[in-house]
Amino acid sequence: MFGVIMMVxxxxxxxxxxxxxxxxxxxxxxxEICVKAGEMVxxxxxxxxxxxxxxxxxxxxxxxxxxxxxTNMSPAEQRQMGVLVHGRSFVILSASINQQGxxxxxxxxxxxxxxxxxxxxxxxxxxxxxxxxxxxxxxxHCPEVNIPVSIPDITFNxxxxxxEGESLQKGSYFSSVEENEKGTYTCxxxxxxxxxxxxxxxxxxxxxxxKEESQKKTEITSPHNNDTIYVDxxxxxxxxxxAVMFSQFDEVxxxxxxxxxxxxxxxxxxYNTTWENNAGEIKMTASLVFKTVSEEDLSKTYTCTLxxxxxxxxxxxxxLAQKPRPSYVSLALGSVCxxxxxxxxxxxxxxxxxxxxLFLRDTLGCHSSTSDGKSYDAFLLxxxxxxxxxxxxxxxxxxxxxxxxxxxxxxxxxxxxxxxxEAVAEAVLDCVEESRTxxxxxxxxxxxxxxxxxxxxxxxxxxRQTRLVFIxxxxxxxSRSGSLPEALQLLGEAGDCVTWKGISSMPPSSSFWxxxxxxxxxPQHAQKTRLLPQTIYDVTx
Length: 541
What we know:
alpha+beta; 5-stranded mixed beta sheet; 11 helices
């Protein structure tokens, strides 16, 4: 009857572990341990940093064929079973199939329980990769996985390396590794216990990469050594330390001065650890937590230390410093500089906006190219100047020729586009309708429809919001207000004014042409490149 009860326990234990892991009753999942049949394997009961019962004894229990208390076995019973229990370590000297199953350890009867699931294989079950650079020195490392550590009567007896069944005379060190030396290697670590030799065998795959592709493995990263980390007083802070380890017995912890930082989260400064195991490479993260950074914390140094069972250790040290307060002088100077730059930009644009606009239009082609359905770029509407200071016939022809021939504008001209016999007012309004801009040109003698027509079409121009450019002469500019017809004054106030200054305004590079082109939109068709004949500059006749 007792045997049946034990068998039921053995069968139901894996189901119990699965259910407790899913329901959250038992947060610790069994740790998977694999070993080759006939070889040694050591289980190590980890420390629970949140539980400190004093001198409580580590309890080991086996759940293989039946539940068995391993801790209270006599040395003779342990030798008969081929096992050894020493403190936190439980060693199986030569694993067999009937020893695979579940094991647990706990610190005293009331302490938390840690679980292991041991699987025994009849052949190699895992390959550990090792990467080296071609042409550089390389040392193969035999994995330190589930090995006995600091156990009396068990002594290390050396490591023997083989490659594809052949023994390596030079061992695992290559002064300059070559392409033909890559492949699968086997390392056998032997231990002596009561004059009996026990082995642990691992398979290592040597992978070679070109020198520039190889990456050095760092033991500890982030934060960098002797780093100063800036913090805010009175605020929480978490500092992350990451380490790459190759043995489950290595440990990462934080030290403040000469004292070890507590792991109890009830302290104002503590640390906690998390780890992951990937192909025998253990990555440990130790997080240093400040609930609230104080002045006292700024005066201390903190060191993240990796303690290895191989005797090698690494560490990084950091200091805390208060974040510097922003300099209001620098902020004020920066604001003044930005304001000065903005003012200068506005002044430069206002002063040179005509030149800038024409440069962007002529050189870079920055202008609107959308067609508005108009047939002409501008309508030159001439009117009689009452001051006899308007453009004469030669000046008017020059104005028309430069606009059409030099700058490529398409013009609607009264004496060219209005047919004889048409109703003058309707013909002028048609030209206005088909043109993008109306340019009012004072002439002497009168060659257009006359200033009387302006009064007649004034209402129509205002209603249609026609774009106007009003050309005036220096005499017109100096005349007193009221000397011009009322309709002409209103049109001049509604449009943009450009002053014709006689001979000085004739060159296409003069300020007159720059202002006129600035107020006119860019021509709809491509500019003509033919220049006017040079003889046209002779205007003295």
